[in-house]
Amino acid sequence: MITFPNCKINIGLHVLSKRADGFHSIETVFLPVKGLKDILELKESRETEFYCTGLGSQYLTKNNLCMKAYELLKETYQLPPVKMHLHKCIPTGAGLGGGSSDAAFTLLLLNKYFQLDISIAKLESYAASLGSDCALFIQNRLMLGKGKGDVLLPIDVADLQNKYIYIIKPNVFVKTPEAYTHIKPCSSRTSLKSLIKNPIALWKDIIINDFEKYVFSVYPQLEELKEMFYSKGALYASMTGSGSAIYGIFNHFPDDVFLSKSHCFHWKGVIE
After folding, report:
1. pTM above 0.90, yes or no
2. Of the listed 38, 102, 133, 159, which one is catalytic?
């Protein structure tokens, strides 16, 4: 059985406070990007095996989130050995949530393949235990994320309908823990739940990703990519997560002749 884990972007990311458990409380809008996706195949086997091909596959081992998802369900359900093949199309270290999506889709795939009849709420609970934004991909829809990113509230943003998205990830890797050490949390600001209701043409001036200030100071080429998107007519452009992917939202696809295709990953598609 085959499934296709897709990525996400963050529209705004507010770091609100440092938690007692060492994590941070955040607020963000998660938008699944269903056109950019990995390929995950699962079948029963004599012994459990996992192998990975594609982008960044050399960094993924048997201890990746797909195997952790399998082992998590195996603690409760009598799962037989399986063979999983993950082909990566979503770049790693990009802030696109590829690993989290792979984990969540593994849970969904195991649930369907072995007819475990696990509820959506329970699947979300399992996913949240694997990673802060894993639960997003169980329902795989536009959500307001709070807490560590694991408290999810459905929202609607009509302005995103029939828009196009362009994603670029240069050969830059941002370490999320390091990025957090340079953030100054701030809780006294207007909620993204309210800001996102404004017309998309106004987002440029009111919706920010708190990580950009530090990350752009270290990797100015990322800020240049963001400004390039605006110069090409983007309605809104931002870094996603803690980086290093930059995206632009457009009414139509821009001409991509300006891209240095040999030095970065790039993808464009329709927002579904």
Report:
1. yes
2. 133
* Chain position carrying tokens 């300006």: 258
- On whether the CB atoms of residues 3 and 84 are closer than 8 A, the answer is no
133 a catalytic residue: yes
Both 11 and 146 in one domain: the answer is yes
Which residues lie closer than 8 Å to 48 by C-beta, 6 or more apart? 67, 70, 81, 82, 83
Query: Residues 136, 163: one domain?
Result: no
Q: Which of 154, 171, 197 is a domain's end point?
A: 154
Q: Provide the residue range defining the domain that includes 168.
A: 158-270
What's the domain count of the chain? 2
Residue 74, judged by CB atoms within 10 A of its CB (0-12, 13-18, 19+), counts as: middle
Say yes or no: 228 and 216 in one domain: yes
- Indicate if 142 and 242 belong to the same structural domain: no
Here the CATH number for the domain that contains residue 60 is 3.30.230.10
Assign residue 69 a region: left if phi > 0, alpha if psi is -120 to 50, beta otherwise?
alpha
**Residues 186-209 pLDDT 10s:** 988 999 999 999 999 999 999 999
Residue 3: which of 137, 165, 97 has the closest Cα?
137
Reported confidence tier of residue 261, pLDDT bands at 50, 70, 90: low
Q: Alpha-carbon distance 161 to 270, whole Å?
A: 9
Structure tokens at 143: 């959500």
Are 46 and 81 in contact by the 8 Å Cβ rule? The answer is: yes
